[in-house]
Amino acid sequence: MRTFRRMLTVLLLWAAGPFALRAQPSLPAAPAPDGLPHRAYRPADSARTQNENEKMAMPQITIYTDGSALGNPGPGGYGCVLLSGPHRKELSQGYRLTTNNRMELMAVCVALETLRFEGSDVTIYSDSKYVVDAIEKRWLFGWEKKGFAGKKNPDLWQRFLRVYRRHRVRFVWVKGHAETVENNRCDQLAVAAANDRARLLEDCGYRPE
Question: Is 196 annotated in the active site?
Answer without folding.
Answer: no
